């Protein structure tokens, strides 16, 4: 049966049901708005289905196996057998539980769910094409719209994701067998997280990065422990190279990487980078060079919505585009491309549409890399604070001085706090080490509330815990840390 073209109306149209879109929908529903949420693929978007959640599930699973296999120091001797199919089934079960929960929450908040692909017809109308032969399309008129279409992996020339040996992050997370060997193109957070996963599964991993170090944008003192741990896992690095082609010489594939003209020193050291081209024989190549916005399918120009030269929709601090009643949230609105930032933007957009006062303070948005060890940051770095005109004071506490860290067998890294030297207000923080992703929340709250070093230091933390390291870092900045030498 062909569904005829019908026209319906809604207070709020939301395009995309990822962490930005579905959160906006639920919040708008809580505010008694009539909400229609359009999704063409899967509720929960890339994050829940193909990115954040499945990758963290596999990170956890491979960490368990690796820790069991390397715990001789604790008197534990084990040789875990990894059942990849069972691991993938468990990962898929976690994903299914979360995505089905999103759908139930939307329905419970009176959100109208609509499957299909939306394109703007004008600034108050979209056409939604339904998937499946003979399913037709329909027209929706809206008073306000929120674009939350997310992002997709960037491809590079001559490495098509349609070719079986070439993988993007989504495909790598769905493999049914462990590759014997793999080249990872890109040393950013996605590349490094997955490089560690596959190394712990037993894959011989080589990372090819065009810059001079991994995790660009993070300070060397944060990335150094990650690189050292990766090398201990057997991961090889080639800095100052770009992947140029691949071909099949017979068995497996051969990835060719060319030196980048004028590339910086290898690994951030003063040693010269390799000058010759590389030829790497592997089973798979994972391309993880970043993500681009999904915006070209929306016919944004018909609604008058402006984008930058990369396709990101330009917005203000309240997630509003240049068209007053149309908002953009999440990855499609640009950096930082973080699920929690998108969710926060979704709430702001929904509340503004409902007439509530709302805005997003980007200063206290944390960033986390789930490498081994983890990295987490929030607020300003020391150099950023000084560039902003602050006289800074810093405090640092090493996990090697933490009783709790030592009892976990994972004591590499530190907590660092940056504060205003005049009044002690916490301006930023960075952590590399165990549970950095969890510990950073306290420091984000400190920045959000305008807390001082004294506030953090005077808050009694339970012993023995990793969170004591946050307290001690604040005390160190004040000059009276107990379990480390003061500066």
What does this structure look like?
With 487 residues, the chain is of the alpha/beta class. Helix content is 31%, strand content 25%. The strands form 5 sheets. Strands 1, 2, 3, 4, 5, 6 and 17 form a 7-stranded mixed sheet that branches. β21 (414-420) and β22 form a beta hairpin. α1 runs parallel beside α8, α3 packs antiparallel against α4 and α3 (52-69) packs across α6. The longest helix has 25 residues, at 84-108. The radius of gyration is 24 Å and the shape is globular. The model is unreliable at 263-273 (pLDDT under 50).
Features:
alpha/beta, 487 residues, 5-stranded parallel beta sheet, 13 helices, 7-stranded mixed beta sheet
Q: Shape from CA axes? A: globular
- Specify the biggest β-sheet: 7 strands, mixed
The number of E-state strands comes to 22
Helix and strand content put the structural class at alpha/beta
Tell me the helix content: 25-40%
Outline:
The chain is α/β, with parallel strands linked by helices and about 475 residues long. It is built from 13 helices and 22 strands.
Task: Tell me the layout of helices and strands.
Elements: E1 7-15, H1 19-30, E2 35-39, H2 45-50, H3 52-69, H4 84-108, E3 111-115, E4 117-122, E5 125-129, E6 137-147, E7 151-153, E8 166-167, H5 169-172, E9 181-185, H6 189-201, E10 204-209, H7 220-232, E11 236-239, E12 241-247, E13 253-259, E14 278-282, E15 284-287, E16 291-293, E17 326-328, H8 339-353, E18 367-369, E19 374-379, H9 382-387, E20 392-398, H10 403-408, E21 414-420, E22 426-433, H11 436-449, H12 453-458, H13 468-478
Parallel strand pairs: 1-2, 1-6, 2-3, 6-17, 8-15, 9-10, 9-15, 10-11
Antiparallel strand pairs: 4-5, 5-6, 7-16, 12-13, 13-14, 18-19, 19-22, 20-21, 21-22
Helix pairs in contact: 1-8, 3-4, 3-6
């Amino acid at each position: 049966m062909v569904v005829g073209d019908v026209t319906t109306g809604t207070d709020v149209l939301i395009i995309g049901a990822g962490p930005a879109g579905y959160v906006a929908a639920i919040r708008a529903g809580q505010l008694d708005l009539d909400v229609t949420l359009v999704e063409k693929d899967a509720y929960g978007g890339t994050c829940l289905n193909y990115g954040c959640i499945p990758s963290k599930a596999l990170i956890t699973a491979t960490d368990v196996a690796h820790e069991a296999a390397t715990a001789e120091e604790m008197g534990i001797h084990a040789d875990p057998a990894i059942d990849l199919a069972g691991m993938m089934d468990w990962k898929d079960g976690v994903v299914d539980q979360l995505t089905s929960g999103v759908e139930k929450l939307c329905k419970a908040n009176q959100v109208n769910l609509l499957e299909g692909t939306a394109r703007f017809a004008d600034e108050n109308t979209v056409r939604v094409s339904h998937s499946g032969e003979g399913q037709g399309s329909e027209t929706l008129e809206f008073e306000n719209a929120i674009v939350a279409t997310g992002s997709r992996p960037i491809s590079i020339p001559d490495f098509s994701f349609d070719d079986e040996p070439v993988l993007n992050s989504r495909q790598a997370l769905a493999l049914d067998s462990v590759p014997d060997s793999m080249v990872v193109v890109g040393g950013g957070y996605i590349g490094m997280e997955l490089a560690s996963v596959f190394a712990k599964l037993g894959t011989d991993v080589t990372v090819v990065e065009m810059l001079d170090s991994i995790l660009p944008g993070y300070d060397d003192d944060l990335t150094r422990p990650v690189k050292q741990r990766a090398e201990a896992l057997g991961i090889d690095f080639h800095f100052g190279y770009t992947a140029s082609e691949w071909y099949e010489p017979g068995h497996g594939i051969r990835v060719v990487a060319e030196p980048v003209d004028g590339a910086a020193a290898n690994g951030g050291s003063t040693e010269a980078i390799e000058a010759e081209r590389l030829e790497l024989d592997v089973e798979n190549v994972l391309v993880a060079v970043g993500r681009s916005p999904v915006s070209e399918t929306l016919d944004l120009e018909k609604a008058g919505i402006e984008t930058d030269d990369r396709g990101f929709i330009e917005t203000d601090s309240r997630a509003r585009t240049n068209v007053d009643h149309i908002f953009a949230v999440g990855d499609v609105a640009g950096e930082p491309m973080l699920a929690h930032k998108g969710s926060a933007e979704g709430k702001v957009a929904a509340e503004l549409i409902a007439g509530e006062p709302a805005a997003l303070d980007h200063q206290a948005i944390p960033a986390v890399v789930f490498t081994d060890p983890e990295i987490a940051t929030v607020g300003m770095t020391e150099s950023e604070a000084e560039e902003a005109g602050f006289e800074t004071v810093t405090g640092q506490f090493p996990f090697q001085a933490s009783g709790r860290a030592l009892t976990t067998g994972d004591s590499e890294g530190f907590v660092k706090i940056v504060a205003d030297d005049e009044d002690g207000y916490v301006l930023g923080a960075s952590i590399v080490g165990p549970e950095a992703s969890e510990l950073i929340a306290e420091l984000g709250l400190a920045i959000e509330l305008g807390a001082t070093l004294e506030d953090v230091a005077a808050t009694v933390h339970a012993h023995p815990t990793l969170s004591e390291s946050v307290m001690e870092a604040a005390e160190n900045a004040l000059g009276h840390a107990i379990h480390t030498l003061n500066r």
